[in-house]
Design brief:
heterotrimer, A mainly alpha (about 625), B mainly alpha (about 100), C mainly alpha (about 160), B: mainly alpha, Helix Hairpins, about 80% helix, C: about 160 residues, Four Helix Bundle (Hemerythrin (Met), subunit A), 6 helices, about 70% helix
Chain lengths: ~625, ~100, ~160
């Protein structure tokens, strides 16, 4: 296939956002900044249409992967830009473009009146473009490029209100933590280049299939998992995500719920043949995912800031995606990624509406309460998304989450019980959030005294459509499975510990629906979670505030994420003081002193030698005489 | 005999060299140069007789003449330095310093 | 016999050379040099080059030394207050002398150890004198002429300055 055969939709996928950004930056920003969102919204519509067209193309079996342009070449190595339009990529791309476009519409209403309106839209769309690039990259190097670009956009958007110190610090923390992961990615890239000489996915898949260099794979795989942990906020490197809520709500909804954080999972999906070839990596991934999911679910249940509850919930669900991957259920992980994008975006945008109602960027449970009638649309959408998150039939989350938890139950070990707890915990925290915000009058809350009002249509309509998605996307499960199976170019047919392959046609994805399954393990746990939340927020209405008053030490434990944040703070301080030492003492004092001292040394030596040029005749005569005599002595000998 | 001549030459030459290098006055340096030339002439004449080399003797004659001329030139230079008010002390002539 | 004569002449020459180096007065140095040159002339005579001996005494001891003494008279060679014999060096004076001495010693050792042949104290062949004179105007003729020209050029040295400075 040549670049001439690439369908127009694939070119438009890039051309539209680039044109919108350039036009917005060079023409609209200086002249009419309040119109910046118009070409960008048009570009969003084009991108969405194109991505669905490409999805249809891949569904019918016409996926493709080709190099478009050779950027640089040296000897046997080359850096290419290419397009890879295949099953997992196009499934995630469709979700990203649809959710992203609706969030762009929401942002037009949310950011109205902000002095940085134009800058916001331009950076937001740049992020959108970077995500598209990441999903259609055809080699690791290109994926790394867009991965970094996504990180840059994240930094710019988290620190969007840069006059707030907390925003600046959060942006810096996010970028630095991602950098730690990116370093692992870079080392993995170099390893891949050194061992395989190419970074293109389909070439690497075939090389792994042939069994080339199996001893390099553990290191590469572990480093890629490390990078994914940083980007997708898994256990050691998750702590940047809650603080990233300092950014505006559209940012949180798009990046830190639906798209950027899923880039890590997507990287592992793309590298799946590599990772699955190492026996101990998939269980490691599953373990990290399960642990993170449990850990974050517990902490989410104790937070008071609405957006932070959702942030920890995102961490927990990313853990569920990692768990699915670790169990070998690649199609299921991709499907949950898609479903999660919808319902998490709805939740974030509803939290944004709640904050907007009291004219603040985010709301705390102390400032809300009993707003069900005051914000009816927001409440309805939130309820749909909450049911989806908890995995209740027939909402979309049921199909993905429950299937994963079933697979975990089959997997055995501690993951079995962890999966039960995850089901319970996610229902608990989300219903706690729903009930505290929209139901009941409690004396500790401001409640209706805050005079909330529903947001305008421009902010409610996108949420409504997304909520419809959160309800209906479950029906697309077979489509996603088909996409992943059929559309995956170059996929090796069998992997050692997953003899059935990766949910290739033949193995069922959706568990057979029966009455037993509706109230099977997952359903039962969700019901228990709801019951517990109801009891602790409605029946015992002041419980949430009471335990904080009675046990402030316990609250401090949760605030510091069981001490992990404190440990990370120590490590960061150690690194910073090490860097300061290296910079001030080693570099400035010693090394610069050495260099400048060498100048002084040579000056001193020159001064000593200059003593020979004294101007005294007798000195010169003496040197002549002695020197000539010694030379003569040598010659005679 | 040759050993004696060599010893004489060596000692006279060393004395002349010491005069040139070590003494302060320019005229003393000139005297030293003359002494060095005389020492060399002694050795040349002896060896010329030893090897019956007439041309070596001719060379000595030429050296004699040239040395005389050089002494004259040197003297006039010293007089010029004196006339320029610089004195005859070699330690005062330090334009080449640095 | 000539050996003793040469030995005597050499000894006198070396002694007066030593005095010359260390004397405080330039006049004394000049006179010492005169004596040394005379002795050198004697040695020339004893070694079978009478003409050269004559030339040495006549030109050197006679003319050049007189000029030198006149110049010493013009520049002042008497010891006076603050009259320093030896020059200052950038390093200690004893080091200068030691360096010179060490260099001379090294060459001396090289020569001694290298050995030399002693061809005896035979006087030169009488025909040498005639051959010498012949050589001056045959193979050394250009050199002779050049030396003559040099004499004339040396006369330029005594031309006065225009300003008479």
């Amino acid at each position: 296939m040549t670049p001439a055969d690439v369908p127009l939709e694939a070119w438009l996928l890039f051309a539209a956002p680039i044109a919108a950004i350039l036009f917005g930056f060079f023409v609209l920003r200086p002249t009419k900044p309040e119109w910046t969102h118009l070409p960008i919204l048009l570009s969003c519509a084009i991108v969405t249409a194109c991505s669905f067209a490409l999805a249809a193309r891949v569904y019918s079996g016409h996926s493709f992967d080709l190099n478009v342009w050779r950027w640089a070449a040296a000897g046997k190595w080359a850096v290419d830009f290419g397009l890879r339009v295949d099953g997992p990529g196009v499934a995630v791309l469709a979700m990203v473009s649809l959710v992203g476009s609706l969030i762009h519409v929401y942002a037009a209403g949310y950011m109205k009146g902000d002095p940085g309106f134009s800058r916001f839209f331009l950076v937001f769309h740049l992020f959108f473009l970077a995500m598209i690039g990441l999903l259609t990259a055809n080699n690791f190097l290109q994926l790394y490029l867009f991965w970094e670009l996504v990180g840059v956009a994240s930094y710019l958007l988290i620190g969007f209100w840069f006059h707030k110190e907390s925003a600046r610090k959060a942006a810096f923390k996010a970028f630095m933590t991602n950098r730690v992961g990116d370093f692992g990615f870079l080392i993995a890239l170099l390893y891949i280049l050194a061992n395989f000489n190419v970074t293109h996915f389909h070439l690497i898949y075939s090389l792994i299939d042939k069994g080339v260099r199996p001893d390099a794979l553990p290191a590469i795989g572990a480093l890629l998992v490390w990078a994914a942990c940083a980007k997708s906020a898994q256990f050691p490197l998750y702590f940047w995500l809650p603080d990233a809520m300092e950014g505006p709500t559209p940012t949180s909804a798009l990046m830190h719920a639906a798209t950027m954080v899923t880039a890590g999972v997507f990287l592992l999906v793309r590298s799946w043949p590599l990772i699955a070839a190492v026996p101990w990596l998939p269980p490691l991934v599953a373990g990290i995912g399960a642990f993170t999911a449990v850990f974050a679910a517990v902490i989410a249940a104790t937070k008071k800031d609405l957006k932070r509850i959702l942030a920890y919930s995102t961490v927990s669900h990313l853990g569920i995606m990692m768990l699915a991957l670790g169990l070998g259920q690649v199609a299921l992980a991709v499907f949950h990624l898609v479903v999660h994008g919808f319902f998490k975006a709805v939740l974030f945008l509803c939290a944004g509406n709640v904050g907007h109602a009291i004219h603040k960027p985010t709301a705390n449970v102390d400032e809300v309460g009993g707003w069900r009638k005051a914000l009816p649309w927001t409440y309805a959408c939130f309820l749909i998304a909450a049911l989806s998150l908890a995995g209740v039939w027939p909402f979309a989350g049921f199909f993905s989450k429950d299937a994963i938890l079933d697979a975990a139950w089959e997997g055995g070990g501690w993951i079995k019980w962890a999966s039960l707890f995850i089901a319970f915990g996610s229902a608990f925290y989300i219903f706690r959030m729903l009930l505290l915000t929209f139901h009941g009058q409690r004396p500790e809350q401001k409640g209706l005294k805050a005079h909330p009002h529903e947001a305008e249509a421009g902010m409610v309509a996108p949420v409504f459509f997304l909520a419809l998605g959160a309800l209906l996307v479950g029906l697309l499960a077979p489509a996603v499975q088909h996409l992943v199976a059929v559309g995956w170019l170059g996929m090796p047919q069998a992997l050692p510990q997953f003899p059935g392959g990766l949910n290739l046609p033949g193995s069922p994805l959706i568990p057979e629906l029966s009455f037993k399954d509706l109230f099977g393990r997952g359903g039962l746990m969700a019901l228990l979670g709801f019951a517990a939340a109801y009891y602790l927020t409605m029946v015992d209405a002041g419980w949430d505030w009471r335990w904080r008053r009675n046990a402030p030490a316990l609250e401090a434990v949760f605030e510091s994420d069981f001490g992990w944040k404190i440990l990370v703070g120590w490590i960061a301080d150690g690194v910073v003081s090490g860097a300061r030492f290296a910079g001030r003492v080693l570099d400035k004092k010693w090394w610069d002193g050495l260099i400048e001292g060498s100048a002084d040394a040579s000056r001193g030596a020159a001064g000593m030698l200059a003593g020979c040029a004294s101007g005294r005749l007798n000195d010169y005569l003496w040197w002549m005489a002695t020197g000539a005599a010694l030379l003569l002595g040598r010659a005679l000998r | 005999m040759t050993a004696l001549i060599w010893a004489t030459t060596a000692l006279l030459f060393a004395a002349g060299l010491a005069m040139v290098v070590l003494r302060r006055q320019l005229l003393a340096m000139l005297l030293g140069v003359e002494l060095m030339i005389a020492a060399v002439n002694v050795s040349l004449v002896h060896h010329a007789g030893l090897f019956s080399d007439a041309e070596a003797m001719a060379a000595v004659a030429i050296i004699l003449a040239v040395a005389a001329a050089e002494a004259v030139v040197g003297l006039s230079l010293i007089l010029r330095v004196l006339r320029a008010g610089r004195g005859v002390d070699a330690g005062a002539l330090t334009e080449l310093r640095g | 016999m000539t050996l003793f004569a040469v030995m005597l002449a050499a000894a006198v020459a070396v002694a007066f050379a030593g005095v010359m180096v260390f004397s405080r007065s330039l006049y004394v140095s000049a006179v010492c040099l005169l004596v040394v040159l005379l002795q050198t002339g004697v040695i020339f005579l004893l070694r079978g080059a009478p003409l050269l001996g004559l030339l040495q005494v006549m030109i050197y001891a006679g003319a050049v030394m007189v000029l030198v003494v006149i110049t010493i008279m013009a520049t002042g060679g008497e010891p006076e207050k603050g009259f320093e014999r030896f020059a200052d060096f950038s390093f200690p004076r004893w080091l200068a002398a030691a360096g010179l001495g060490a260099a001379a010693l090294e060459i001396g050792m090289t020569l001694l150890l290298g050995g030399f042949s002693d061809a005896g104290a035979a006087p030169a062949a009488p025909a040498l004198g005639a051959a010498f004179s012949a050589a001056l105007f045959s193979s050394y003729a250009p050199a002779t002429e050049a030396a003559t020209v040099l004499m004339f050029l040396a006369a330029l040295a005594v031309l006065p300055d225009k300003e008479g400075a």
